[in-house]
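LAB NOTEBOOK - FOLDING QUEUE
OPERATOR: T.R.
BATCH SIZE: 2
PURPOSE: Compare the predicted structure-token outputs for two unrelated chains run back to back under identical settings.
PRIORITY: normal
REVIEWER: second-year student, initials M.K.

ITEM 1
FIELD SEQUENCE / FIELD STRUCTURE:
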Amino acid sequence: MSLLSGFWDKTIAMEKWIERKEIYRGKVFSVDSGKVELDDGLIAGRDVVRHSGGVAIVPVLVSHRENLEQNAQKNLVGNSGSGDIESGLSVIFVKQYRIAIEREILEIPAGLIEKGERPAVAARRELIEETGYDAELLVPGPECYASCGFTDERLHIYLAFDLKKAVKNHDVDERIEEVIMPMEEVKKRLAEKGFEDAKTIIGLHEMFRYLDKNTR
């Protein structure tokens, strides 16, 4: 029997809005503030950040295509795991200054989903804008809430393969530095807790899971 058997059968106390007002609307998000009633009648205050959602992309670049193809032809991957394939790959990160934490941070490319835009379309657009690469293959990964304690922002994470050069065109108010990191260094940094951005950590774990599953 699964350890989780019956876990989701339990009813969690619900909350319902009894008073709600939008107190702020900006370019990226809005804020609702109000009161909720709990199942036992208790009244509590709540503030919620409303967000249209975002995408994050792990761009996997073939650094040495000839070596990669030779390893695949020799079936080295099947004999020794994904290490041989990974030796020919790199990940494209972006480094930028984030005013919220008042310093630079290394992240995977990411951005907002525009109104009416499908997540996959947004992912491709952001990839091109921030890295100057388009992807022949875009693999959907996990979807997750950024921080459901106060916001409804939902992130759609993608893996991008078979990258082709395109025209970089990031927003005029963005200052982005592209960082291409060999896969061996990515794995080392991840193991040593060298990444701090949540979507980046989730995306990289998904990338290694995907490579391990599909290159054996």
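ITEM 2
FIELD SEQUENCE / FIELD STRUCTURE:
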Amino acid sequence: MNETVTTIVGNVISELTPRRTAAGVRVVGFRMASNERRFDKATGEWVDGDRLYVSVTCWRKLAIGVSASLVKGDPVVVTGRLYTREYEYEGKHRSVTELEANAVGPDLSRCTADVQRVRREATADVAEQVEPKAATSEDAAQQTATEGGQEPADEAPAQALQVVAAGTTG
């Protein structure tokens, strides 16, 4: 099976939704938007172009780091497997573009970050101590469908980041 691995640069546009699967695996989801900006030579100004909205899912240690580090509005760079999921909701066929994240970080061209490394031995302790920056529920249909998916393999230890917004330029 071919996978579509991609990197998307954009902003977190929803509250983070941390949860656990029935097996106790940590998951966090959020929506992000990537907005094209281009220079219009005719007007001499920067203008908005196309937009991409995507639901992002982070598992295990990545979920812990994301929950401790990001909030709605933060500029991010997300790499992972992009796919479209189709489902029925209230009798209507729907589809949503999703990104199962392998890595998430702040977009350092638009913010700064204070990196605090987490030692491998301390990862379990940190997971219990981490308070999510944002914790509200998202669309229940999205969460239910994601719970039914296959859980990805464990990844490297999370690194907690404190993201500080910086001024942006067009």
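REVIEWER COMMENT (ITEM 2): The CA atoms of residues 84 and 151 lie 17 Å apart.
FOLLOW-UP: none requested
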